[in-house]
Design brief:
The protein has a single domain (7-244), classed as Creatininase (Rossmann fold, 3-Layer(aba) Sandwich), CATH 3.40.50. 36% of the residues lie in helices and 8% in strands. The protein has helices spanning 8-12, 38-54, 83-99, 115-128, 149-152, 166-175, 221-244, and strands at residues 20-24, 59-60, 104-109, 136-141. Strands 2-1-3-4 form a 4-stranded parallel sheet, with helices on both faces. It is globular and about 55 Å long.
């Protein structure tokens, strides 16, 4: 079910244990060859495929295109909300659904920069409603649900999501090839090792001059369809766990 297609009485009639899906993405630079809407385009398609399989089992909110993308602000075209602003915006959306009486609210993410503030938003809301034993507040990023594309297709070079990379470029080639500029001549920008297994604060221009990270020259539309299918299947399986949750237990 898509919220944008419904009237308020239709929403009011839903069982309050219906999972509410809040998709969050971004509009930001994606190198010389991909459009700034890449993250929102890709997550929108994955959520569309997922909703089509789950039909009336979940309620999907409109995609939130404004992300926390301050690390990309050195590249024109990037639009961003500051971390605290973005955190509060996502938190307010979730609080709206709690006020409407819904118990299962999940944030599905399509942009790496949203990861930390989204998790903080969930943490803060859970503390505010600490006496509620019936709430399920959850978060996932679509490429972090376990898919290992190279095991399905050995032609995949990358072993993780990059930025305007083999994976993202392949998916945009599948969905909107008209938006992809020449990419086969682009050099690989390595992921590097920024003090792993620790974490280093960074801004994008420290890691890449052209804006991409990874190997866009290896992208194909065929790889893109495989990725979209794998990621959508992962998200369906994860949301089915949310649907099956018994309303009490820690495990899901």
């Amino acid at each position: 079910m898509n919220l944008v297609d419904m009237t308020w009485p239709e929403v009011a009639a839903l069982p309050r244990d219906t999972p509410v899906v809040v998709p969050v993405a971004a509009v930001e630079q994606h190198g010389h060859h991909l459009p700034v809407v890449t993250d929102s385009l890709l997550l929108g398609e994955i959520v569309r495929r997922t909703e089509a399989q789950l039909t009336r089992q979940v309620l999907v909110c409109p995609l939130m295109w404004l992300g926390n993308s301050h690390h990309h602000l050195d590249f024109p075209g990037t639009l961003s909300a500051a971390p605290r602003t973005w955190l509060d915006l996502v938190g307010d959306v979730m609080e709206n659904w709690i006020a409407h009486g819904f118990h299962r609210i999940v944030v599905v993410n399509g942009h790496g920069g949203n990861d930390v503030p989204a998790k903080q938003a969930l943490f803060e809301i859970r503390q505010r409603h600490r006496m509620r034993g019936d709430l399920l507040l959850a978060f996932t990023t679509y490429w972090g649900l376990g898919t290992r594309p190279w095991e399905d297709d050995p032609s995949f070079h990358q072993r993780e999501m990059g930025h305007a990379c083999e994976w993202e470029t392949s998916m945009v080639l599948r969905l909107r090839p008209d938006l992809v500029k020449p990419h086969t001549g682009l050099a690989e920008v390595p992921f590097g090792n920024p003090f792993l297994p620790g974490t280093r604060a960074w801004i994008t221009k420290e890691r890449t001059v052209p804006g991409h990270i990874g190997s866009p020259r290896l992208a194909t539309a065929e790889k893109g369809e495989r990725l979209l299918a794998l990621f959508s299947a992962d998200l369906v399986a994860w949301l089915e766990r949310v649907v099956r949750w018994d309303g009490r237990s820690w495990e899901g």
